[in-house]
Amino acid sequence: MSHPPENHFEDNETRKIRLEKLETLKAKGLNPYGGRFETTASIAQTLADFQENKKVVLAGRIMASRNHGKVYFLDLADQATRMQLFMKSDVLGEDAFAMLKNLDIGDIIGIKGELFITKTGQQSVRVLEYHVLSKSLKTLPEKWHGLKDVEIRYRQRYVDLIANPEVREIFLKRSRITAFIRNHLIERGFLEVETPILQPMAGGARGRPFKSHHNAYSLDVFLRIAPELYLKRLLVGGFERVFEMNRNFRNEGVSTKHNPEFTMLEVYQAYADMQDMMKLTEEMVAGAVHNVHGTYK
């Protein structure tokens, strides 16, 4: 007989409590899944351009909550960083302040307030009003230990992003790297193209393909294992510099370091040799490193 995991009953109890809070918010006329909310800036921009008494409108996820009687301190986080919120009973009003007990870590809220510096020197927002944008019904991974289970981290990447800020930083760096590579090649006269993902024959590399069937053509097709052959045909057709940043699929092993679906960059240049391509690659990689880190180290 199988047994539920240790935290099974705890999770059920937590969900029950949060559902009760959800109903309380609704009963008070608050929409716990509010719609559009326009902010004045991101938290990072607000901190970078911090001016005391400046009015701001921010949104993010509650990552910490501390109750001190007539005062709440919350940590509000967006995709880049977090900021402290100062929420006081006589500023919010008794009813709005009382409803704060129905908010939990993981909830997404929007706030309007003014910037100030606390007695301890921390840049904060004195909240004048708040709006519940999304009520969370599940708890986040425990604060100090984070999300360590590798299986869960890769299967539930969205939880990994919430629990481990360093993972979110990898996503941001990857976006900057791909943008740099694309611009680097375009500035040197390369044409970005898209080639077929579904192919009648898997070629351009050695790998086991995923197989499917095209009903309209009654044709067996394969998810590409590489874009090489189609890119070379473009050279035959007269284009002299082409590249593609593409998704490829190989029906092979899976691990934390090997994914059957992955991104590949292929670049082709007419009238060039190995030395030219080595120089292009070196400049591109070094430039991407400098673009992300501000140094070649």
> What is the CATH level 1 assignment of the largest domain?
Alpha Beta
Question: Which term fits the overall shape?
Answer: elongated
**Percent range for helical residues?**
25-40%
Low-confidence stretches: 1-6
Our count of domains comes out at: 2
Q: CATH superfamily of the largest domain, please?
A: Bira Bifunctional Protein, Domain 2
Overall average pLDDT? 90
Query: Strand-and-helix sequence, N→C?
Result: HHEEEHHEEHHHEEEEHEEH
Helix count, DSSP H or I runs of 4 or more residues: 9
Relative strand content: 25-35%
Order of strands across the main sheet: 1-2-3-5-4
Overall radius of gyration:
26 Å
- Terminal-residue CA separation: 56 Å
Which CATH-level-2 architecture of the largest domain?
2-Layer Sandwich
Number of strands: 11
The structure class reads alpha+beta
- What name does CATH use for the topology of the largest domain? BirA Bifunctional Protein, domain 2
Major sheet attributes:
5 strands, mixed, barrel
Give the oligomeric state of the chains in this entry, treating copies of one chain as homo and distinct chains as hetero: single chain
